[in-house]
Amino acid sequence: MKKITYMIWMLLLVIGSSYAQQEKGIVGSDNWLDNWTDFNPKTADYGEPSQILTGNITKDTKLSKRDTYLLMGNVFVTDSVTLTIEPGTVIIGDFQSKGTLTISKGAKIVAEGLETDPIVFTSNRSVKKAGDWGGIIILGEAPTNKFGNSSISSLYGNLDSSSYRYTNYGGTNTNSNSGVLRYVRIEYAGKKLKDRSNFSGLLLASVGNETVLENVMISYCAGDSFRIIGGEANLTKAVSYRSSKNDFKFNYGAQSQLTNSLAIRTPYISSSKKARCLEILSYSKKEEIDFTKKGTTVLAKNLTLLNSSNDLNEHIKLGLIKEAIFIGESASLDINKSVISGFNPAVILDDKIMINQENLEKIKFVDMYFNNCNGNIFKEYNTNNEDLENWYGNRSFYNVYAKSQNSETFIDMKSEKRPDFRLRINKIIAANGKN
């Protein structure tokens, strides 16, 4: 009888372990990166375009999987119309004309791919590189903390004056709906501009909370992968891979949620100053801001922020690895159940932020896994972080600190076709404190 009872307990333990999943970092009973992502897009061949997208789209339009589209110049979806894109459709951004797709204020994009048939935006060059084309821009009607109405007309360079009205964003409708991006890949975007800045892979300006943004992957972007200006854009299962600049940048009063999402940096590409996984600001220029309005607030849960360095100490010496998160003055971050692995250090707070209880209660790190970072949380230009270590190292925050190699930490990050960046089962033990 005892033997049978023992066997039943062992069977239950095996079954429980097979269905268990780590609660920190990206989560899922299955690897949700399977099928729709591509971590080696240079090998893909989509053939020659059969259709051209150019000028303004002024009536409801549907792009079909049976065609491959060339995105030429500045394409605007205008006049409150909807651009619908079928699963499996490929849109190729033109290098020469800096192809960009802008969903103007009041218009919609409905790009609903499938896990097994994603929608792909990519480069038309035979040897693809970051910054080959512009990117996707969605302009909505939700608020920012700027004075008055706003425009991104300067972003396009020599834009025809008749198109200026299509570059406005902002309003008062937090529930506005700019459509759907689901199972979408954006590759090699971020074309350089004349002022030496770059397009973003996906720019969301004043996008309202009824907009659906799920399972979007941006890879090899020369600018910010995801740039959020104001609004209430919420992102789930977003992936940024090998961005040259920020993976996720929030600014100008954004009220956003970022959930179950992944950012992977590499010291060989992502080495420029001010290039982080998360950059959370409330302004770039103080004179633009109405401080009676809400500053930027980001709620983040189950993120994995990873630097894929295979020689962390050497790359730190060479200055190729920076912090994972930067938080600016008047901005708030509430992040929990997330992993930060392999940075220098994990987090930096703007030097304008006074270190006191009032400010630190706006910047929360709870139930975190800080792994293999050269320091954890610092104030900018300050090498003494004892006060911050004492605050966030308090057992009530349930933060864990470790020094494990990436290969030991994640399930399988070496596979090109099906990498799995979930934490290994039982990797984190119930322990707190600082290393």
From TrEMBL:
Keywords: Signal. Residues 1-20 form the signal peptide. It comes from the Bacteria. This is T9SS C-terminal target domain-containing protein. It comes from Flavivirga aquimarina.
